[in-house]
Structure formats: structure tokens, C-alpha cells
Amino acid sequence: MKSSQNSFNNFEGFNENEYYITPSEMLEFLYCKRYTYFMNYLGISQHEEKRYKVLKGRTIHEKKELENANYLRKKINVVDKKINVSMVSKNYGIKGIADEVLTLSNGTMASLDYKFAEYNDIIYKTYKMQTIMYSLMIAETFNAEVTQGYILYCRGKNVLKEIEVNIKEINKLNKYLEEFKKVMSGHYPKSASNKLKCIDCCYKNICVK
Fold it and tell me: Between the N and C ends of the chain, which has fewer C-beta atoms within 10 Å?
């Protein structure tokens, strides 16, 4: 990687004509795979700029960038941090911008991701897989060992949770990445099994059951 930047084009070997899956796209894919079909494959916008949580989440990110959150970093023995870090993994075909990339006192590195959500005793697989994606990108970008990542739940009491990065979770991510690519080749996936997700879906009028 070249010096710190916010442009993927600065990465050696990055081809802007190739499709790189982002953590945000993976989150939507795991919520409902038909999101990916309609939005990414067919190119039908979900008009996310009108959605309250998206707008609020962006505000939280902007606010957190300005706050001094050293008390959190001290809890996990952070010795250095980088903010809003653009990263690419050519090995996995993924790219993204991490809220923070941390260097820990034991020499390993980790991601810190802010979520506009309240921790309710479970870390959803959507968040886990995003953390695994950031971890793989950190490992490849910085040639570093990554054994864990962190999520900060900004609603409520600012709960900080650790996610272990291991081969089991990486294998899960690989499976989802292959499924994502299959949808991007035109495969029409099953809809979400939880039909409550359909109530507020922007694609419900065109989604064939």
C-alpha cells in the first residue's frame, strides 16, 4: 500500500473496472439476498438517502471522528490508530473504508467499527462478517497479524464488543462471498425467511415470491 489515503485507486494493482464487494454490501446481502439482486445486479436504487437509520448512522460516524475516544482504546491496549482507512484485498475481491484501524500493544492490528445500534446480548452475523472483511483487508494491506476486531454500539451505553477472527469465521465469509458473486451473475436468490423484513422493504412491490 502507498501512503494513507481515501482512494482505492492508490492501491497498486487495483482495477476500478473489477467488482469488489464492500462490507456494507455484505451486510445488506446477509439481511436479504434479494437486496443484492435488485440493487447491485439490476441497478435499482433503494433511495437509502431517505432512510432515517442510514442518515443517523452517517451522523454518528461524523461525530465519532471528532470525538476523543481514548478511554475506549485504552481498554483494549491501543498504541496507535488510523481513522477512515481505505483498504483493498485482491485475494478476496473486497474493498472498504474502516472507521478505525488499531495497532495493539501486542503488535497485532484490529478494526474498530461504529454501529448506530444498541447491544442486545447478541452479535449478529452481519456485523461479524463485516468485521472479518475488515480484518482480512487489514492483514493484506498492512501485512499484519489480525486476531480480533471490535464493534462499538453507539446507542445506549457505548458497548464495545470483541469479535474473534479465526478460520471458522473466514470460511463462513468465503461461502457468503461466493453466494454474492453468484447473485451478481444473475442468479435470483430466495427471499428472506423472516417475512418481517419485507414490511419496510423498498423492493417489496417488485419482489416475486
Answer: C
What is the length of the chain? 209
Give all domains of the chain, ordered by start, each with its CATH number: 23-186 (3.90.320.10)
Instruction: Sheet containing 159-164: give its strands across.
Output: 78-89, 94-104, 109-115, 148-153, 159-164
Measured CA to CA, the distance from residue 101 to residue 108 in angstroms comes to 11
Distance from C-alpha of 209 to C-alpha of 31, rounded to nearest angstrom: 16
pLDDT greater than 50 at residue 201: yes
Q: What is the pLDDT of residues 130-169, one digit of tens each?
A: 999 999 999 999 999 999 999 999 887 788 999 999 999 9
Q: What is the mean pLDDT of residues 125-134?
A: 97
- Strand 109-115 to 94-104 pairing: antiparallel
Backbone angles phi, psi at 159, to 5 degrees: -80, 130
pLDDT attached to residue 32 = 93
If you average pLDDT over residues 100-105, what whole number do you get?
A: 97
